[in-house]
Design a protein that fits this description.
With about 350 residues, the protein is of the alpha/beta class. It is built from ten helices and 16 strands. Helices cover about 30% and strands about 20% of the residues. Helix 7 (about 265-275) packs parallel to helix 8. The protein starts with 7 loop residues before the first strand and ends in a 10-residue tail after the last helix. It binds aspartic acid (ASP). The site of aspartic acid (ASP) has 11 residues, from loops.
Length: about 350
């Protein structure tokens, strides 16, 4: 799949960056290519000269990313795979609300990338006064032209983050994304895209791309819920979530370093769900640090029940990985082994 392509591909999927006013509020706009080129033409000539050539395509119906589902992740990965050999790097323009979810899912679907896929968006539409959109697009184009970047990344507000380690962290500030348990892959410094190759995945890639383009249809409607513990969670509530036949796996966000309330009825529901072959994993609901299931007696019930440790993964990385693994016809043990193995730098190696 290698090619000598030197130009980039920009894929517009929707989001605030391309939105325009409508009587009902902001909606995804069209004609994104001339709008992008007009905005980039306003950069100082020396900065314009640094940009690689690019082509723009759009998904059939650009959306507000709050409406995205796993099927959108699947279609986007297919689109990238289709055009992969034509582009030296790919920029995906995406709404910020679920951008980190899409980035995480793409990382699993596009394993072994040998060129950059950079997702970006904006907190303000391209044409809004003082918008962050142009700066984000410029930096994304520059990072996407950097052949040493060989993974799915998020370029936003002057920082390049590993996609499968990132989270949206601000509702309104321009600096909207963070990567709580992994250092940045790069920074925008004095109008240059500066990469930190030692943080990147390129050394871990084993040769050619080995994309896993799967059918997420059977899992797209609620098969993998995300359940955040709260004091007072009752076993009947966990039962309602986990013992439904439509549920194939779940992410639990537990306390601190990996703890669960000391309630045998909760542990019983977890054990029953695991016994039914559901793939359950747990991470901490603390945004920083790892969960180590079984360190405290209060967490032992999780490992006894068969719940897998998500270590320091983000919720986005854990849920999308569960979906990705459940979409494959794998023996249970292999699915569990892969969940515990870093596939694309999504969790710290044991
Ligand atoms: N609701 C928008 C979206 O996610 C927000 C944004 O793009 O910033 O598409």
């Amino acid at each position: 799949m290698t090619s000598s392509a030197s130009s980039l591909l920009v894929i517009y999927t929707g989001g605030t960056l391309g939105m325009v006013e409508s009587p009902d509020g902001l909606v995804p706009g069209h004609d994104i290519e001339p709008r992008l080129r007009r905005a980039l033409a306003s950069l100082p000539p020396a900065r314009r000269a640094e940009l690689a050539d690019f082509r723009v395509i759009a998904t059939p119906t650009p959306i507000d990313s709050s409406a995205a589902t796993p099927l959108d992740w699947q279609r986007l990965a297919e689109l990238i795979a289709k055009h992969y050999s034509e582009a030296a790097g790919i920029v995906v323009i995406h709404g910020t609300d679920t951008l980190a979810w899409t980035a995480a899912s793409l990382a699993y679907q596009l394993q072994g990338l040998d060129r950059p896929v950079v997702l970006t968006g904006a907190m303000q539409p391209l044409e809004a006064p003082g918008s962050d959109a142009l700066a984000n697009v410029e930096a994304a184009l520059r990072f996407a032209a950097e052949p040493r970047l060989q993974e799915v990344a998020i370029g936003f507000a002057g920082r390049l983050l590993r996609g499968v380690r990132s989270r949206k962290w601000q509702t309104h500030e321009a600096d909207a994304f963070t990567s709580p348990n992994h250092p940045p892959l790069g920074d925008w410094v004095e109008d240059e895209a500066v990469l930190y190759p030692e943080q990147g995945l390129q050394h871990h890639q084993r040769g050619a791309p080995r994309f896993e383009l799967l059918d997420y249809t059977p899992l797209a409607a609620g098969a993998v819920p995300r359940i955040v513990l709260w004091p007072g969670l009752a076993a009947w509530q966990l039962e309602a979530w986990l013992l439904d036949d439509r549920v194939k796996g779940a992410l639990l966000e537990v306390w601190g370093g990996g703890n669960l309330p000391d309630d045998p009825r909760l542990a019983g529901v977890l054990a029953q769900a695991c016994g039914e072959g559901k793939l359950l994993a747990a991470i901490s609901q603390c945004p920083h640090g790892a969960a180590a299931i079984g360190t405290y007696a209060a967490g032992q019930a999780l490992s006894d029940a068969g719940v897998l440790s998500g270590d320091d993964m983000t919720p986005e990385a854990a849920v999308t990985k569960l979906i990705h693994l459940l979409a494959q016809p794998l023996p249970d043990e292999e699915r569990r082994r892969r969940f515990l193995t870093p596939l694309v730098g999504e969790r710290t190696a044991p």
